[in-house]
Amino acid sequence: MLVAGKAEKGKDEVDRFITILDSVVRLGNVYTKLIAAGCVLFSSWQVKFLCDRKRKVCAFVKFGSDVDAQTLKGRKEHEDSDVSLMVPPLAKFMENCLEKWLDYINEKRNEYYHLNFFTIDQMVILQRELVKVGGQDEPSDRIYSLLSAVKHDCSKTDLISAMKLAENDVNEKDQQRKEEIETEEEVKEDDGKREADGNDVGKFIEELMIAGYSEELAKQALKHVSADNIDEGIVWCMENEMETELASDVISDMDTSYTEPTNEIENEAYTGWTKSPKSISSVRAAILHSLSAGE
After folding, report:
1. Rounded to whole angstroms, how far apart are CA atoms 150 and 119?
2. For residue 193, is pLDDT > 80?
């Protein structure tokens, strides 16, 4: 019986070792694929497992390096828990990350068809080198041969011009998105106030239109007059109708005479795209903080 008991205990240790080893190999494989696919959130990623059964904290997952390092700790939920139960879920999580990252790349390939001229390996090179444009470090010369697939005989001048235009395009979209969010919040706030006050906005606009004013002018009046006071709304329209029409005419003239300042963009010295205080490290830290808070 004593010999059988020792044999059974030895088999349990072997099974535990094999489980941990298989999971670590699986983890290493998916990490290699994530890095090869260009997922920068996992750059400088490290994981350490302690197989001592007596330790409560037995897993350390580290993102980044030096002062930017962020570390997650894995703690056993129960006394009979083991590190062998922690490694497989982590490997599964990494596999899900890889799957979502590849889906994201495919989505962007469909959105920006020029990306289909490059393999994932080539996009990783461009990702690493293009960020250097305008900075202290010069990008590798081999990116120009890669970019010649979409721009014949691509030169440094062509690249800087494209980077400037792309940066301006992104900034304009970000500004538009910010303005849309602010407008939506203002509309929600106004709707909430009107609903709380029991105001009939539709009736207010309808009455002002019957009085001979445009729907746009009636909406402008709502910003200055409460919807339950139609008489004041009519008075406001009488006092401001001419001024509002003049402002609309001026805006129309500005729109028709506007020309895009391409020369100014070309003549500006390019100092690099990334000027935001945010970095990959800060973004990664925010994600890890949200994960910790969620737990």
Report:
1. 13
2. no
pTM equals 0.57
Residue among 160, 165, 171, 170 at smallest CA distance from 132: 160
Cβ density class 158-179: b for 16+ within 10 Å, e for less? ebbbbbbeebeeeeeeeeeeee
Q: Which helix (H) or strand (E) holds 58?
A: strand 57-63
Residue 72: phi, psi to the nearest 5? -105, 140
In tens, the pLDDT along 203-218 reads 878 887 887 788 888 8
Alpha helices in 77-138 (DSSP H): 87-111, 120-130
Q: How far is residue 50's CA from residue 87's CA, in Å, rounded to a whole number?
A: 11
- Distance, CA of 180 to CA of 190 (rounded, Å): 15
Q: How far is Cα 194 from Cα 201, in angstroms, rounded to an integer?
A: 8
